Each structure stands twice: as C-alpha cells, then as structure tokens.
Amino acid sequence: MAEVWEAGAPGVLRLPSGRLVRGRGLRRPLDADAPPPAYGVYLLGRRPPAVPWESRWLRWPDFRLPADREAARTVLAEAWRRAAAERVELACGGGRGRTGTALACLAVLDGVPAEEAVAYVRAHYDRRAVETPWQRRYVERFGG
Question: Whole-angstrom Cα distance, residue 133 to residue 67?
Fold first, then answer.
C-alpha cells in the first residue's frame, strides 16, 4: 500500500472520512522535500507536461468548468477512491478556482452535502477556493 499525505502538510485537505488529498497551484514550485503524489489530476486548458507519477488531465480552462463533465465525474471519483490509500493531488495553475472546485466535488463524494461543500473546502483548504458563481453551481449540482 502506498503512503498517504501527512496531515497538516501544505495544501493537504482532510475529508470527513479521513482521506487526505493535496491541492496545489502549478505556477508555484513544488517543495523539493515534499513527497511526490502517486496519482495526480491536472485541471488545465492545455495538456500539462509529463510527470514521473501516474496522472490524468482534465481539460478545464481557467475560471471555467470541465470541458467533459462526465469524464470529470469519472476522474474525480477515481481520485477519491485512490485517496483512501495513496497520495493523490489535484492541481491547476493557481490552486484555488479549479482545484478548489474539484476538491469540493471530492468532499461531496465523501459525504459533505453539496450545498455545504464549497464552505467546507474554504474552511479547510483555502478561504478563496472556488472562484466563480458557475464553479459553485457546478459543485452544488455535482451531488445530484
């Protein structure tokens, strides 16, 4: 079994189930001492550079929503499942809007009511997470 993130490490969100998921902004350099993820989900408008761990790319333009919502649901559900036993990270350019939206969707999968998921991520990850009204609506509809 792979290791999970250290609780309290930068960008690590603890979901109610105890799963730990790291969110981060790709424009900030990764700490050289930080362990790498086992699985990364990259939420970008263009394909990201290759990484030495397993990863998925979701086409997700800045300040927008995923281009393929069905694929996003599948990839985010996989990230949630894998976070039970592996280091999973979700990342976009800045680490707030798209990453916060995706983390809020994981919170919904973890049992947080959809209408409370954005507040949960803002309280436990970044107070400015989920940047647009349509990202908030996406999370609210993700549960249904």
Answer: 17
The bridge status of strand 39-44 relative to strand 20-25 is unpaired
3-state secondary structure of 84: coil
Query: What phi and psi values does residue 115 have, to the nearest 5 degrees?
Result: -75, -10
Lookup: tokens for 134? 């349509």
pLDDT per 10-residue tile (average), the chain, 144 residues: 84 97 93 92 96 96 95 98 98 97 98 98 98 97 83
Answer yes or no: are the C-beta atoms of 100 and 131 closer than 8 Å. Answer: yes
Query: Rounded to two decimals, what is the model's pTM?
Result: 0.96
The SS3 of residue 36 is: coil
